[in-house]
Amino acid sequence: MAESTTVSIPDIEKFKKQALYWANHFSVVCLLDTNHYAEDKYHSREWVLAIDAVDEITGGNHAFEQLKRFQESAHSEIFGFLGYDLKNQIEQLNSNNPDNIGLPDIYFFKPRYIFEITKGKLTLNRNYPETFELIELIAKLPLPDEQPKAPHEIHLQSRTAKTDYFQNVTAIRQQIEEGDFYELNYCNEFYAEEASISPLTTFFSLNQKSLAPFSCFFKLQSHYLLCASPERFLKKEKQKLISQPIKGTIRKGLTEAENAALKNQLHLDAKERAENVMIVDLVRNDLAKSAKAGTVVTEELFQVYEFKTIQQMISTITAEMREDINWCNALKNTFPMGSMTGAPKVMVMQMIEKYENFKRGLFSGSVGYIKTDGDFDFNVVIRCILYNASAKYLSLRVGGAITYDSVPEKEYAEILLKAKGILEVLNASVDS
Known about the structure:
Layout: E1 5-8, H1 12-23, E2 28-33, E3 47-58, H2 63-74, E4 78-82, H3 87-90, E5 106-118, E6 121-124, H4 131-139, E7 154-158, H5 162-177, E8 183-192, H6 199-210, E9 214-220, E10 223-229, E11 232-237, E12 240-244, E13 246-251, H7 256-268, H8 270-288, E14 297-306, E15 310-320, H9 327-334, E16 342-343, H10 345-355, E17 366-370, E18 376-379, E19 384-388, E20 393-402, H11 408-426, E21 428-431
Parallel strand pairs: 7-21
Antiparallel strand pairs: 1-6, 2-3, 2-9, 3-5, 4-5, 4-17, 5-6, 7-8, 8-16, 8-20, 9-10, 10-19, 11-12, 11-18, 12-15, 13-15, 14-15, 17-18, 19-20
Helix pairs in contact: 5-11, 6-11
C-alpha cells in the first residue's frame, strides 16, 4: 500500500472486532476473513477490512465493462460483489422470480479506509498525523461482554414446501434421464419476515462457529451479507488462474476415528465423485476460454478438506492466462461459478429459473477484491444469511447438486445439514 502505516497491536483478535464495530457506523463495509485456515495452498490475505465508499459503481447494463473502467480509474484496490443474476448479461437468460432482498447485481467501491492484518501487524492505507489517533480510538472501543443468541426463536418458512421440493428433484432427475443435462444445482430459500437481528453479533457468532476460509461481512446501506463460505470461486495471481469448486459434503465425526472414517466415506462415494468431476470438467472448460493451450491442469481431484463443522470434497483447477486476455475477461468467462449451476451451464441456468421460485441475487454470486494490477480473489457466496434490515426480511438459501443418482429425501437432508450451523446461530427453526 502506498503511504500506509503499519503498527503492532497487542490484542489482535479483540482489535478485529473493535474495528468492525467502528466500521459499522459507515454505509459501506466489506470484511474478508480467512480465519487462519491453514490448508489453502493459495492463501493470500489473512484479514482485510474495507470501509466507506470514496467512489462506487452499482447496477447497470454492461456490468463487466463498467467494472473494468472503474478498476482502471480507481488507482486503488477495489472491493465488491457480483450477483448471480449477472448471468443475464453474459448469456441470453432472464430472472423473473421475486427478489425480497433488493441488492444490485453488481456493486464495487473504492474504500476510504483499508485495514489489513498480517501475522499480528496492522496496516492502514493512510499515513496522516491522525492515523495513530484513529487506531488508538478503535482500540479503546468497548465490546459487549458476551454475544447473546437471538432474543427469541426465529421461525423460518420454506419458500418451497418439502413435498414440492421432492417433486422438483424427481422432475430434475427425469430430465437428466432424458438427456437434457447432467447435473443441476437446485436451491431452496428459508426466510422470515419481521425478523430483528443484530448483524454484527450474528456475524461474530457465525464466524466463530464455522471458522471458514472465505468468510465475509458486507454492508451496503441497510442490506447485509453474513457469510461463512468455505469455497473459492476464482483467484488471479499474475498470469495464473485458480478455481476450487466444492461438490460433496459430510458431517464431522465426534471422535478422530469416526471423523477419519467419514472422510474416507466421502472420498470414495461414487455419487459425490460423479458430481465433483462433472463440475471439474465444466470449470476446465470455463478456464480454457482464457487460458494458453495446454495449461489447464487439475491439481487436486476429490480432495477432502476439514472445516470446523463439516467436511467437503474440493478439487483445484489452474490455468495460465493468454496475453490477449485481461483480468475482466477471465472473470466474465467463468461467471457464475459451475459449482452453483451444473452442466451444461446455460441449459441448467434456464432450468434453475424454472424450478426455483426466488431470485438468487447475491447468493451464488461472489465477494472479493481487485488490486491495481488486476490480481483478484473471489469467494462463492454460500453458507450465508442475507438480511434487509429496513424491511426486516431475513433469508437463508441453500442447495445441492442433483444428479441421476439423487434421492429426494437425502438431498433435503443435505441442505438441512448445510444450514445447521446458521440455524443454531440464529436460534431458528424451519417450518417446512
